[in-house]
Amino acid sequence: MSDLLRMGPLTWILVALVLFAVAVPALIFGPNLLRGMQEKRIRAHGLPATAVVTGMDETGRRFGIELVPELVIHFEVRAEGRPPWRGSITRIPGADDVRFFLPGRTFDVRYDPAHPERIAVMP
């Protein structure tokens, strides 16, 4: 601990810059990376269902030079032996994605039985 206290101001600035360089990308890209990993797990191990798009909302976050909005796409999910329920996915859409997720469109999905609101649209 005493070695940390003996570091000079230049060392502290360097440490702060390194932490900043690691923290900012983690905050920006981390949530999307985690969502992608979760969807991959649900596609591999989830249970099959169908889902109808009921709408979409902006999260308020924007990305890229064009400031593309992050969207939450809402679904009504149906699976055999269960009453319908609501699920959603969060996306930073490309230009075609907005038209792809129009309300009323039906998709094959998989859902996490432990958290049925978590779904993954099948390719």
TrEMBL record:
<keyword id="KW-1133">Transmembrane helix</keyword>
<protein>
    <recommendedName>
        <fullName>DUF3592 domain-containing protein</fullName>
    </recommendedName>
</protein>
<feature type="transmembrane region" description="Helical">
    <location>
        <begin position="12"/>
        <end position="34"/>
    </location>
</feature>
<keyword id="KW-0812">Transmembrane</keyword>
<keyword id="KW-0472">Membrane</keyword>
